[in-house]
Amino acid sequence: MSSLTRREFVQKTTLVAAVAQMATSLRAADAPATSAAAGAPASANPDALRWLEGQTPALLPGTSWGRSWPRGQHGRDTAFALQTADGTAVPVQSWPLATWPDGSLKWTAHAIPANAPAAAEYRLAAGTPAAPAQPVTVVESSDTLTVDTGVIRAVLGRKGAALIRSIMRAGTEVAREGRLVCRLENRHEPGVTRTEAFTGEISAVTVEQAGPVRAVVKIEGKHRADKAGPSTSPGQSASRPDWLPFTVRLYFHAGGDMVRLMHTILFDGDASKDFISGLGVSLTVPLRGELHDRHVRFGGPEDGVFGEAVRGITGLRRNPGPEACTAQVAGRATPPVSAWRPGVADKLQYVPAYDDWSLIQSTCDGFEIRKRTKEGHTWLEAARGQRAGGLGYVGTPQGGVAFGLRNFWQSYPAQLDVRGATGEEAEVTVWMWAPGADAMDLRPYHDGMGMDTYDKQYNGGLDITYEDYEPGFNSPEGVGRTSEVHLWCLAATPARETHAAMQRVLQTPPLLASSPQWLHRCGVFGDLWSPESRATPARTAVAQRLDDLFNFYVGQQDQRRWYGFWNYGDVMHTYDPDRHEWRYDIGGFAWDNSELSTDLWLWLYYLSTGRADVFRFAEAMTRHTGEVDVHHLGRFAPLGSRHNVQHWGCSAKQLRISTAINRRYYYYLTGDERVGDLLREQVEAGRALLKFPPGRKLAFANEQGDQSRGTPNAPDSVGASMGTDWGSLAGAWLTEWERTGSAKMRDRLLASMKTLGAQPKGLFSTGLILNVETGAFEITKSEKISVSHLNAVFGLVEICAELIQLLDVPEFRQVWLDYCELYNAGAEAQKARLGDSARNVGLPQGHSRLTAYAAKQKGDAALAARAWKEFSRNWRGQQDVLTPLPVQTVRGPAVLRPVDEARGVSTNDTAQWGLAAIQCLALVGEHQPAG
Fold it and tell me: Which pTM does this prediction carry?
């Protein structure tokens, strides 16, 4: 199978667009019509694309999204046209994300320009795309890249420290010297702390897209020590020449004045000695005009805006007049000083002008705005609040820059700075880690407590606190963090209403989304979900419980303050009812780190409901679990870390956390390039198992020795569990095959499926050895059976459904159906089919979806009834009555502040119950009991 590359696809659609630029109206008429009437209500037109948040955005800087297609509908070279419901052509750029096995398009991505025709819904179909009135272009030279959107022109560097050398608008420079900055507290010498400054240094630049609607430039490098940076020990050299690898992507849209910047860093320091005290993106903004016509803005909660001038003229003893005061407050140019009331203009030098401004979000519950006249003088408290929106501005009526950080308060400590506002140019910095806060401390939270042997770790720590500790394994080496920065290059100081609208874009970037009905019709993600239905009381009860569980976790995130730079997006694992607190400080019971597929529950719930709040919650989790919970460089790369008090603290470095299965949903729904990087990172992750066999301590405890490493005779072979290891690898191989058409990935999948199908006890076989290069398993000689309740709870169910859908391997289909049918069947049925009964068959309620899958595939009504019976019993075997979630509010003095708790709710159970509910309804919903 071959596949058109994205560059070829974009070039093809670009050429078509250019040829047809003068025929927009004809293109609109020629595009194939959908079956739904234009302008029909949402429920009548499930094929339409609609804004995720349900409202047409008041401000559109350009956007991109993913779209699924039924198998066989569109060939690889199909071009696409976009229209509003009333037939207005909308410029669009398209590129492929994935193909079906027959080579037809499965997923595509699309982008529209800034200020595209506004509509509640759009129609995408095969056709000639409309070209933008102001196409974005990229011109490359040996030293620079020039990106022109038709409104702004950005010159980007290929080397050096300036990622953005300059940005022009209407012939006037509005920004220059855009660079990455880092401050480091160097504690390498005992008792000595030196503050060192680093600036990002470019090592590679790649143009990933070059228009006509969207341009994407990827910049990679490391932070390099400044020759003259802040230091408590002048004259001493930096602790290292460079460190902290970064990847930055800059996004430009045709007709747009906003640059979107996706900023990723990987920690490669020594956690005991290297403490980041500031991490940000900085740029220089030229300032023109009088100090009283220079404006600073900061966004507060909701639509609140703090706005002042560098030199204020309101509130003075001598008033310059209402026209001047009103203009300054609004951000407009004031009348000439000669038109002011007498006694003001000639005394302006005695009115303080404020050079430096800061908004510091030190916690998720509080921010402060400060200003000072100059360095060496005190800061004034200008304003305080709880949760700032994250957008700032500095400029004049002749132009300026708005700068902001998405998830600003959620990812505290964050900071927005303006420095030098009284000079010819100001420096603005978006700090992802605020220098006004304590330095970042990534050291382990305990000293190991004597757990220096496998025996102490396995039979000691793991047994009492559920923490899998091992010396040196609780290192943050290689963990990542991605932040999103928006830069608006403006022709004038924005009105307060405009500032508030830009902040809404920053907080929830506009995204077009497909309906659950369309996605389900396309048959994507294994047909394991279906659009939510409340057609019967029984379905309504399940749907309501799904709502209750999700809403409960949203509330817990806020009440328990699951926020912060390294934490936002994750949830806690287990609750402690005695303290009325989640077990944030107890070993393996703290941060969830995707345990039992929390990510998958949220994504399937979104697919079923189309709810924007579910998407945003799942989006934040995907960003977190794909970056923070995974080692992207160093000795543990590219494995993830099991649940722990610290996200990277567990010694179980496993594929089940780094798995591509958890990221596929977001990637295909958005086309996000950074998540695409994470997916590709996992393609060869199986080789990491040769260094860190997941079962090494279990083998020790069972006195089996370590049999799971490669040997000289079989260097690519490793012991692999079916679910926590192979399922994750299969997810990565499948994704890479879909994205590229790689025959190597397809052949690995086929080899795995065929050799699993040939095992003597099928997927109940024990001692499976996988060749990570070929994908083939050795055929075990053991007649014993082995099963784990963890096999099918980390994406194996979901990926097997897709494999069976895509690849015709009858023997694999049979052994998977056997596994699904027999897991919950009971000892007698297992013994009759396998010759022995399985042990460790926990989580029967979660596994009801396996029974449901077998029932659906076999058309077995009795098996379907059994699935619902299994679903109706909780993990204790008790009847699970779908009454309202037992939430109660606990107040002081039992707790610090009022909180809601639902005793008995754990994230493991929630994720597995949610997946079972969604999949049982999709697979055997017609067999659901009425009561």
Answer: 0.94
